[in-house]
Amino acid sequence: MQKIRLLDAKTINKIAAGEVVESPKSVVKELTENAIDANAGSVTIEIKEGGISYIRITDNGTGIPKEQVKEAFLRHATSKMSQIEDLEHIFTLGFRGEALASIAAVAQVEMLTKTRDEETGTRIVIHAGEIQELEDAACREGTSITVRNLFYNVPARRKFLKKPATESGYVSDLVNKIALGHPEVAIHYINNGNTVLHTAGNNDPKTAVFYVYGKDAANSMLPISYRKGEYAVSGLIGKPEFCRANRNYENLFINGRFIKNPVVSAAVEDAYKTKLLIGKFPVFVLNLAVEPAQVDVNVHPAKLEVRFKNDDEVYEFFYNAVAKALQETVLIPKAVLEK
Ligand code: ADP
Ligand code: MG
């Protein structure tokens, strides 16, 4: 057996990066979330070759002040929390301070950023965790970050990337979800030079559904808005006849964060139960607004799963919310008839 010793910082970063950055999709997710956290009203997402050779995310958000650009790339460096108690109040999508450090550890990264108050912006180039260039640069307010050749220095990881077409499919699914969850942000998605999606950013969920799923879907959605105790849900649910053969159209967001959660899925599906054919699943875009203290989002580095404080309460809440919305749509035509 070899002697026990502490790994050097570069090795630690590379290993840790594996948890946050798995594929082009996770890079796009982290960078787009950063843009949204920076209050961007529009975000452009460009990828080439499934994002393996090229990803660029451009936003018109706050930008990073010159003197903090270097810090932003340090592991566990974040402007979003300072102590563990902050997690109980956090409404930003990020908070772990790991994304930029992780991405820069396993790719070639270039960032241009400028705040409103600054005369000139900043350009930083980092390859495999090493700063190559750091200088003043002319650029627009906001941030643009380019990630080239993902995992070029981690061959073991690069080997596990799928074909560009497959990776590109994963990115597209993610971008669709972000667009549905954030109708207030205009999302422009360009894949290999072609615009695939360009949402309005008008804060109307139905318009977002129209851009992502098309006209039929948009016309088949019913609004839902329900509040009880500490929970409030809003969004759209599909009419029972507009059901799908899988769960891919089930979109749940908690305080704007896309989440997969079996309790919520079960509650919504149960509320539809008698209205859906066997083997069919509902289409929905639901955003739960809840005190951050009610959910633990820090279960997984990619933050795709959450733990609720009280699963039973959450089940009942969603079941009632959806059952009520579905019931109302049955009642409305009747009320109209009685007029
Ligand atoms: P986290 O999002 O968890 O804070 P990141 O590594 O993703 O960690 O980002 C580190 C910090 O860099 C953020 O806390 C934020 O202050 C800053 N930052 C990153 N991306 C942007 C952006 N697009 N616009 C403005 N600030 C950004
Ligand atoms: Mg982040």
Please count the beta strands (DSSP E, at least 2 residues each). Answer: 15
Strand order of the largest sheet: 5-4-3-6-2-1-7-8
**What's the CATH first level of the largest domain?**
Alpha Beta
Query: Biggest β-sheet: count, sense, barrel?
Result: 8 strands, mixed
Number of helices: 10
CATH architecture label name of the largest domain: 2-Layer Sandwich
Strand content: 25-35%
Share of helical residues: 25-40%
The CATH superfamily of the largest domain appears as Histidine kinase-like ATPase, C-terminal domain
What characteristics describe this protein?
alpha+beta; Ribosomal Protein S5, domain 2; 2 domains; five-stranded mixed beta sheet; binds adenosine-5'-diphosphate; binds magnesium ion
